[in-house]
């Protein structure tokens, strides 16, 4: 497959040409439509969006996922195509696009394109290069920030709106920097769409942050205490991490729904924002599967691999939970320490006041000040402990839960052998990517955390160094 | 300042524990540091050279070196238990002759209950944790036990040293008996009746204290001291409690590092990817940093919490002195009144005169020595605070620098790897 990676000579069209594309337009679909007329691809048959090939061997999965194979398919196919085709109807929309059964490369070569149009987005050189997974795949050149939580409305109908800012040089986006306002249910809607499209074919869709009725209610009724501000901040950070993780995923990045989420100023209100869990998908797919010919699952060697991975994830999950619990305890104790230090500082100040030896009195007041500053340090450290470490861990625990669900699903899927292989290949790749990401993520976070610890120690040194001469001055 | 030789811990609890990890830093050899002018004095040197902890009691070996003629030998040792220290202390308090002195506060009862409980719980929970975790926690708890042990030894020692350094108290007969008599002093702890009596005595004292302290003292010095001590004592009490809580939280946080380190270690060993080395390195870091944090907490405990606790007890002893002086003042004033009455009636005048004389002498004697004692108390206090605050700051700096280096080294390695 690596061979296919070469950007096809698209009739001298340089990547910059693609900037003409409007958002939401699917280069690919336009390609598809032109394929129809291309002589070199005799029978794409009908490639109308709605047609699910009856040659497909499996049930009609609700959504489809674009994987490398198909990218390559179109690499071949687009060879003869001019990009200036006038036909550029955006087939894309938020509606579930029709299914495309992933096919193995062998079937691709013959331009018997049995695959259909994708909800998958643009395939063109630059993005493909950017999507290179086996390669470094690090430079995604897209940055997402979630900021400025703002309460909109009143009472129980109120909600928090967050500003989602994207900075990117990817040309699939029309601008290099833009921002939109989104509310929490929008995030959930995005996740449910992505999950319904990609989960069941083996992609690890990052889980969305959890709903919290209590937390949100407090915010709604305008309880302006520190716990509700903390809640909002926690949520903002979680949403940011969620988006960052999602765009890091090369395939999801291509998803038009994601793009729409990031770019459109207006988003259709996601009504059914029950985040579809893997289990939900499973149920849905099973129902569809029942309606079609059943095939037996082909047990092959890949199962041993899956089992091993499953075990691995099981262990990892357990360890992470333990680690998470310990870190939470640390955060708690650190907060306690901070409170106790503050109390001591006050007490020491009082003691200094009543001490009738002047120099000692002064030194005690100084001590009180030092302890107060240290209390601040502890608070900041607790903050760092929590946000850097704890949240990451809980994200990962949930991520692993999502992965486990896929694997469970995988074990139950009833599809044809080819599809099975395809999905299992996808899953393997996903798992590999997940593990690499995990490694990187952990390393980054832990290093940042250690750096925060370094800072704390440096501050401590400063404070005590300032205090020492005061203590020595007691005569 | 000599250190205690390694205290021995009873066999039951401490199999395999040698003098233990160097839990306490060298600087903190006992609470002697709290009383800075207990210089070695050839005439009389007292220390606790050994101690043995058994199930429910601690046996201290009190070692004396003296050139005084009062003793049969120049150097000798006896074994004493906590109750005998209390007996000695109480005998000072009850001695009228010593009314004008600040009686060195009695050492607190050795209390290993909490620590023992923890060790027991650990033993029970052995099955539920990994071998490494168990070993780690056991070491920790043993270190804690050892620290408490060292502290109680130090506190008993300080009491003796204070007595030995006091020009009058060091000559006390009971003290000599305590030091020299190599049999059991047979002082049982107070029984219920005696404890009740104490309770009432204290109650009366505080009731009295209210009355007595209402009277403004003609002497400015004492008036100031009284106001000062009342307030100071309360604030030291508060600071001591808060300091305790602070050092305890510090220790809890340090313990958490332990668990995190263990989890990371487990992750590092079960993982097969290249992150495994990473985890192991970070786990090692957490282990080391935890040790430092635990030391910080222990040092804070010694230099700050213990200092405050000690001066809580000393300021109480000073208050007691003031109370005794006030009492004798009241007695003196009453004797004056009685004398006037007697003179008026011309009855029992001589008796009244004698009585008044005695009261006057007593009051003046107490006042004189009390003044000196209170001045000394201040000197001692300032010096002790200075020493401990300086040492606290120096230790905090040392540990913070150590921590910093540890973290920076680790970061260098981790960043180099990636």
Q: What is the alpha-carbon Rg of chain A in Å?
A: 28 Å
Unreliable segments of chain B (pLDDT under 50, ≥5 consecutive)? 1-33
Which whole number gives the mean pLDDT of chain A? 64
Going across the biggest sheet of chain A, name each strand in turn: 1-2-3
Q: Give the C-alpha Rg of chain B.
A: 27 Å
SS field, number of helical segments of chain B? 8
Per DSSP E runs of 2 or more residues, the count of β-strands of chain B stands at: 4
* Largest interface, C-beta within 8 A: A-B, 57 and 58 residues
* Major sheet description of chain A: 3 strands, antiparallel
End-to-end Cα distance of chain B: 51 Å
Count of DSSP-assigned helices of chain A: 13
Describe this structure in words.
The complex is a heterodimer of chains A (475) and B (418). A 3-stranded antiparallel β-sheet of chain A has the order 1-2-3. Chain A is elongated. Chain A contains 13 helices and 3 strands, in the order ααααβββααααααααα. Chain A is 57% helix and 6% strand. Mean pLDDT of chain A is 64; it is low at 1-138, 272-281 and 287-301. In chain A, helix 12 packs antiparallel against helix 13 (417-472). Chain B has 8 helices and 4 strands; from the N terminus they run ββββαααααααα. Chain B has helices at residues 82-94, 113-124, 131-165, 173-180, 192-214, 220-270, 275-345, 349-417, and strands at 8-9, 44-53, 58-66, 75-81. Chain B starts with 7 loop residues before the first strand and ends with a helix.
Topology:
The complex is a heterodimer of chains A (475) and B (418).
Chain A: H1 27-37, H2 68-77, H3 105-109, H4 125-131, E1 142-152, E2 159-168, E3 177-183, H5 184-198, H6 213-220, H7 226-248, H8 250-253, H9 256-263, H10 278-291, H11 302-354, H12 358-412, H13 417-472
Antiparallel strand pairs in A: 1-2, 2-3
Helix pairs in contact in A: 6-7, 11-12, 12-13
Chain B: E1 8-9, E2 44-53, E3 58-66, E4 75-81, H1 82-94, H2 113-124, H3 131-165, H4 173-180, H5 192-214, H6 220-270, H7 275-345, H8 349-417
Parallel strand pairs in B: 1-2
Antiparallel strand pairs in B: 2-3, 3-4
